[in-house]
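pasting for ref
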Amino acid sequence: MIVNSFFIAVPAGALCCFLFLLFCFLNMQKSKLVVDFRLILGACILWSGGATFMRLQLKPGGHFWFQVSLLGLLLLPVAMYFFLIQILEHENKIFLSIIIAVTLAVVAINAATAKIVPTPIAVLGQNQIIGYTYTFCAGIYLMEIAEFLFLMHITFLVHKRMAGNKDFRRKLFPLLFGIMLVYFGQLFEMYPGNIIPFGSFGGVMMALCFVYVLYQQSLFDISDRLLVGCVYTVAAILVALPVWNFSKNIEAISRFFSMKISGTVFFYLLLMTFWSLLVLYLAWKTAERRSFQKKREQFGYLHDFQGETASLFNEDELYKKIIDVMEKIFPDARTLIFIRKKAEDDFLLVPTCEADYGLNHEEKGRILSLCRDNEGDGRLEAAPLRYDDALMGFLYLMFPSKAKINYIEAQYFNQIAAYASICLKNINAYQEVYQISIHDDLTGLYNRTYYEEFLEKYWMPYDPQSLLFVSLDDFKLYSEMYGEETGDEIIKWCGQMILKTVGVRGATFRVGLNEFLVYSRYRAKDELLEMAHEIQGNILKEGTGKPKIPQPLTMSIGMAFYPDTASDRDELLRQAEQAAFFAKWHGRNYIMAYEAAGITRPLWSEGSKKG
């Protein structure tokens, strides 16, 4: 009659619910929030377990189990406060110490005297159902007032944290709602004459609210947690069934084995210990294998990403690697990479991302504020790319629906962003050094070393290409007459004038003391000749920034063409240089083209004649 009572089923159901939730959060990566939630579940298990065993009238008696239940009930606010200070980012060690001290003192005094909160009285209700009712006294009043003050304190902290922050309001409202359910449920249960266990109802609802808060914090994958909980629940049932069966049939088992009860109990305890350890070990390995299989795969992807990007010195290749690893770890999401424009406070989507998935200005501003403040909004879909504490860009996960990433995936996401930040920093440092190595210190033009690298990269053997070899006339004379400093100014000015004249029509290099190269593709001979004339004319006529020397500056230019006369790039350079040599030998300020059979033909315009 008692066991089947509704008033036994409610706290027993709450106990099973709390145990299942505790099982769900085993085999989980350590987190302060998860640890604090386990403390809450532990307090709830003491509370509901004591209430259940008290109603079952198990030994050592109702008073003992009520004190266990009261201990859990009074420890619950302490565990809640531990949980809240993590969510609210608010810690008051003095207040916390006072709560713990008062809780332990109340439990100890009440266990010894039963004066603060007396043990509830068993009453026989309708249909011969036994229930329990509380006798109101000063201790219960004080406990309810203390709980109310605690609730007000928590409400104040929550309201203060939620003010003006919609994201925290969404997270913290269920938490506050769950605490209120516990408080009012316990208040109604202690009402004089009541025998319905409202507190157990409130406790179950509170636990579910706290699970929702943890889920909003992206601390777990709900399907994984449910599976782990089921594994441990089955293991607990497998351990409990033999124990229950033995307790029901101990005398029959003793007679069957012709053993004394004490010997049977000892033998059975050894057997059950071995059985329990075996079942729990298998459950632990099963849960661990399920929990860490996906994590191992993701860790492998992350490890491969770090190895593949360690030696990258190209941003585009890095962006492709980032997108590849993100697609493996987050197959249902689109990855967008935004990089800051130089000298501007705007961020552009990198070309490797799909343009159809760009963000509007408002959404981009929200993500930027999160990245700058280095805090998430609960969805953890953005991670900053930083360079010496400066925000240089961010990664953005765009899900097709309101999907979430869990705590472990968020760690991988942030690790990818952090490692990508290091790679970008290394690439930028490498590019700075590289740019210095391929540019001439004096003129800022590409140097001869880069000319070889340039042709390795851009030489097109099936396309027509041409080369101008430009040599400044009488440079040695100028250096001797006016000094090396003036000579450097002349070279610098001439190099910039050639670069300005050529523009996008070709690539300009300084390959010698007073020698320059202009490489061009897809240019007809008359177009190249016109460009050579412009170089000579601008050097002669332009006066802005020109060094102050009385002599005119002139250029001897040699032209060569591939594949008309040269068979490869090395021969192209030799022919252009030879043509320039003959231009100097012919009288300076000439343009000469290398033609078949080693013949050089002088070419000049009216501007060249006048020079």
